[in-house]
Amino acid sequence: MSSPHHDALPEDILPALRERAHAYRDAVIAGLQHLIAIPSVNPVGASSPGPEARAALRWMLEHAAALGFRVQNLDDIVGFVEYGPADAPEVVAVLAHLDVVPAGEGWTHPPFAGAIADGMIWGRGVEDDKGPAVSSLYALKALSDLALPLRRRIRLILGTLEESGDWSDIRHYEAREGRPTMGFTPDAHFPVICGEKGILNVTFRAQEPAASNPTHRPGLHVAAWHAGSAPNIVPAFAWAALSLDARRFEPALVSLQRSARRFAQHHPESQLQVMRAELFRERYPTEELPAEAQVVVAARGQEAHGALPWDGHNALQDLANFLAACKVANNAVGRLVHFAARHLGVGWDGAGLGIAAEHDKLGPTTVNLGMARGDAQQASITLNVRLTPPHTVATLAEKLRRVGEEAGLQVEIDPASMNPLFVDEDDALVVGLKRAYQLVTGRPAACAYIGGTTYAKAFPRMVAFGPLMPDEPMLAHQVDERVSLDSLVRNTEIYALALYFLAGA
Ligand SMILES: [Zn+2]
Questions:
Q1: In angstroms, what is the span from residue 419 Cα to ligand 1's centroid?
Q2: How close is the Cα of 128 to the center of ligand 1, in Å?
Q3: The pLDDT of residue 220
Q4: How far, in Å, is the centroid of ligand 1 from the Cα of 362?
Q5: Beta strands in 279-434 (DSSP E)
Q6: I want to staple 388 with a disulfide (CB 3.0 to 4.6 A). Which of 103, 196, 209, 359 is the partner?
């Protein structure tokens, strides 16, 4: 707590900022209502903002210009509001986004109307992330009203492609404007998220040469398998279809069922079932079994977020371990079965891949075997890795490539992978944010560390800061997203004081 400019804080700054934040209560609410009425939903996977997201960006910039700020719109993709000495080389950024996820059904109040009821404002984006964007804008207004001396510029950067997962808005900003010196994103919760694990998806593919006929290899023949809907979810269901030699069908089925019982003794949490294909088709009519399937091995587990594998139980890992123990033949699926059993086993720590790591703040690197697809000719598995230092995307990709290629697999690293984020607790950024939070709320401010990803990963030396108090329920992306009017004002106050600490003279 010893940065010199902090100690120069005049005693009356907080009351004055508080007075300003409260004076703008109605303006924040009206601004947010206007923004909520623009349904800025982008198509899934969009790499450029749709017309409504562009409209939301233009409206915010026009509104900020009317409040007296410098603004710039970078091609209707990303824009910023700027305050502070125009010639100051350093920039403190607030990074918010104006795109929202679809509303879904079942709202108490219409999702794009900004209704006010029970002391709350209701609507898609009031929490994520339009409310924080408007609170931040009026935090700048409070600072400018008081004409407090600043030594850094402050930029409220407004993105339009956060929810699509593409983040090309950020790359567009960086290409044109460079990186800010430091900053925060009001897109998670208070007090301060000082670290986030990185994220990397890797797909391993096995392919049979076109001329080969893998059906004649020794061992059980897996005709197809399927598990998971997304890499970052622990799969709760997985199946593999087997084609057995017709002359020895009955004894083979009995022997498989016996193996499944033996497997269950060694893996008491597993839930495997070996059944005839007709029965499986009856029970799971939406699954697409290949025509030659005679017997299906199905595994049940427990779904969980891929960053928290210990909260679930991976059905696909059970399936792979069982099939490997049955010594399935080396066709495309079979090679991945043996690869998964050998390199993932039953754990989630990546030890079998040679990538286990533990960071004192961020915790362990985790691996989720999220998806399996394919048949005898070509098959794949996709893993979601949450990496912690010392791993980077580059070093981890190199290791995974080597392990996969040694097993004769193709290895594809998702280009959208992101490095872990870690800002030291002694960094002036973290110290300033904690101090602002403490002074405004009177609550202790400890750093949090998460396995997930926030917009803070957009730039180095950036952290997530609000908008939710630790005890406020997270309603982002949910039906009836709403925030209290008081919290909008409180956030204006916290952000104004925080920005003064970070940018003040
Ligand atoms: Zn968000």
A1: 19
A2: 4
A3: 87
A4: 22
A5: 295-300, 304-305, 358-359, 363-364, 366-374, 378-386, 410-413, 421-422
A6: 359
